[in-house]
Amino acid sequence: MISINALVEIFTIALSVFFAELGDKTMLSTAFLALHTRRFLAIFIVSLSAFVAANILPIFLGCFIGGFVENYFTRIGAAIVFMFIGFWILFSKDKGFANISKGLASCFFAVFLSELGDKTQLTVASYAMIFRDPISTLLGGVIGYALANAIGVILAKLIGIKISYRGIRFVAGVAFIAIGLMLLLYIVLVNKP
């Protein structure tokens, strides 16, 4: 039986990764490749696999670091990372990988490499430091990533790749800044050292 705390952690991580992934280069790449190859389900599964492969080590490192650093400081660090990610989403010019070949291996490596150091990877690593639960963190990350990329693939299938992500990116950026600010307020007002 999964605890209520674990469910809250999973939901929180999934929601954050979902917002981080909206309009991101991996979402755009996955949608583009799905449209380009017409192998919608296969591209979605390969993209999800690449996300998992790229995030396992950062999650375990986050849990490891979180075990040595006082929770107060990991929360402050995470709040700063979330605000950084929000500004990154708002002001980056990410357009994805438009010139990827049709192969599934190309898709895997494109998504894997684009995840390295990406805002979704920073998000899951930050949550791993806070919650110190690699299973919940990975599960939440996978759910959020899958939902965002499923939307991208479905939209690619229905209306093509000519989707404007500017509004979606704005909402995602503001959401991350708000998450960071709320976490800082919680730390300052409720969870003092």
TrEMBL record:
Keywords: Membrane, Transmembrane, Transmembrane helix. It comes from the Archaea. It is a multi-pass membrane protein. InterPro entries: GDT1-like. It is found in: Membrane. One of its GO terms (cellular component) is membrane. The chain crosses the membrane at residues 6-28, 40-60, 72-90, 134-156, 168-189. The keyword Transferase does not apply. Signal peptide: none annotated. It holds the Pfam family GDT1. Belongs to the GDT1 family. This is TMEM165/GDT1 family protein. It comes from Ignisphaera cupida.
